[in-house]
């Protein structure tokens, strides 16, 4: 599978396993602009995979309500750049719902997906990487995968996690490469970084698309400067794996 197909596979697994799970957002019914939800409406019906109005604040607000009611909400923001109208709903409502209610209620069954990062074109409204804005907000988790295999396992962990999660999908990697990805569901733990390359001189930390850039940098540093680089894929931005990085 390539990355967008692994996302589709994860969503298919989630809908099959959990009869309360619903997917909603702009254009998801026909498969989405990146084809990540293709075929799911035909397979699971229009009550479980459906379009919303062009209103990101409404998409996330609706998702919070779905999750608080006990169902599993998988919301798509069509580009990460347009997540900002929903910033208030994410930061002031979703992240604080459990705390605000004294743990009587929560919207932990909410996962927000969004295509993320640059793609070589698209300019300012279709190329942003807004994870830093959310990285200072306790109560949510932020995850960014580097590859198809990682994407499926991490997305399923987000959907099953009992905290609201934001899952950013590097759009330039959607069709960049293929990997062997299990059709069956599997999980990759959140908040666990992965050491991709050991080294003795310097530690390089990256996530998403930049993991591949950093690996090239590490190879260049070794070849041209004799510098031994450790390469770590952070994977989860919040809460991040301080233990692995510090070690």
From TrEMBL:
Instruction: Name the enzyme's class.
Output: oxidoreductase
Q: Which CDD domains match?
A: TPP_PYR_E1-PDHc-beta_like (cd07036)
This protein's UniProt keywords: Oxidoreductase
EC no. given is 1.2.4.4
One BP term from GO = branched-chain amino acid catabolic process
Give the molecular function GO annotations: branched-chain 2-oxo acid dehydrogenase activity
Query: Which domain of life, per UniProt?
Result: Eukaryota
UniProt keyword Oxidoreductase present? yes
Q: Which InterPro entries match?
A: THDP-binding, Transketo_C/PFOR_II, Transketolase-like_Pyr-bd, Transketolase_C
Reactions catalysed, as given in the entry: N(6)-[(R)-lipoyl]-L-lysyl-[protein] + 3-methyl-2-oxobutanoate + H(+) = N(6)-[(R)-S(8)-2-methylpropanoyldihydrolipoyl]-L-lysyl-[protein] + CO2
Q: Which residues form the Transketolase-like pyrimidine-binding domain?
A: 1-176
The protein's required cofactors: thiamine diphosphate
PANTHER family the record matches: 2-OXOISOVALERATE DEHYDROGENASE SUBUNIT BETA, MITOCHONDRIAL (PTHR42980:SF1), 2-OXOISOVALERATE DEHYDROGENASE SUBUNIT BETA-RELATED (PTHR42980)
Protein name per its UniProtKB record = 3-methyl-2-oxobutanoate dehydrogenase (2-methylpropanoyl-transferring)
UniProt source species: Podiceps cristatus
């Amino acid at each position: 599978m390539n990355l967008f197909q692994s996302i589709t596979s994860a969503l298919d697994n989630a809908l099959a396993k959990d009869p309360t799970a619903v997917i909603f957002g702009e254009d998801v019914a026909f498969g989405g602009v990146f084809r990540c939800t293709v075929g799911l409406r035909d397979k699971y019906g229009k009550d479980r995979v459906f379009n919303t109005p062009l209103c990101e604040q409404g998409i996330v607000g609706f998702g919070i309500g779905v999750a608080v009611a006990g169902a599993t909400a998988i919301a798509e923001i069509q580009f990460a750049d347009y997540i900002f109208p929903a910033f208030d709903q994410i930061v002031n409502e979703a992240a604080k719902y459990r705390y605000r209610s004294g743990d009587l209620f929560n919207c932990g069954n909410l996962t927000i997906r969004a295509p993320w990062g640059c793609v070589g074109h698209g300019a300012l409204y279709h190329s942003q990487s807004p994870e830093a804005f959310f990285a200072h907000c306790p109560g949510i988790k932020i995850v960014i995968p580097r590859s198809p295999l990682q994407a499926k396992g991490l997305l399923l962990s987000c959907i099953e996690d009992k905290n609201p999660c934001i899952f950013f999908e590097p759009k330039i990697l959607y069709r960049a490469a293929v990997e062997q990805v299990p059709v069956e569901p599997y999980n990759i733990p959140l908040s666990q970084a992965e050491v991709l390359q050991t080294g003795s001189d310097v530690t390089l930390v990256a996530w998403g698309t930049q993991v591949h850039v950093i690996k090239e940098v590490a190879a260049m540093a070794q070849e041209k400067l004799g510098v031994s680089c450790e390469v770590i894929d952070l994977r989860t931005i919040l809460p991040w794996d301080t233990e692995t990085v510090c070690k």
